[in-house]
Amino acid sequence: MLNENIHESLSTLTASQLAMLLVMRKGLDFGYDYTFTDDDGQSAAVDHAFLSAAPGDLLEVIFEENEHDDAINEVRYGAVDVSGIAEWCHYSWGRNYEVDVKALILPDGRALAFCEMSGGGKFGEPNAYPWVKEAKFIKVTDVKERVIKTYKFEEIPDAAEAQP
User: pTM to 2 decimals?
Assistant: First the structure.
């Protein structure tokens, strides 16, 4: 999502503002057109460079003025599972849904964590949970690499079958 060549002002963003930035960057990659209206009533287009240099309060305005459904889902589903951190969602959500803590790993050693809802039954809307606004920073304390083996198979050419 973010690489190590990020603008210095990103370190001043809150967790929620950084989540908004990640969603809007993904939205731009998907071809969404983000705009905002400045104090003079002029509408301006938004690109990656603009987003990276924008202060947090401006990111919040742009986020609220635009749509990003697919981008929100894409960012959320790109997160990794977190263990050892208790969920912090509002009681009414935790009561009606299964809650998992997820995180997006940042290049500075932090992770952007949020609660992800699932379940809820026939009329449930777990995707309606405002995870972007409730995100918080957590610290990455350990990284373990795993080796995964994969196998490739092919059929054996017809051979005389063995008789018992």
Answer: 0.79
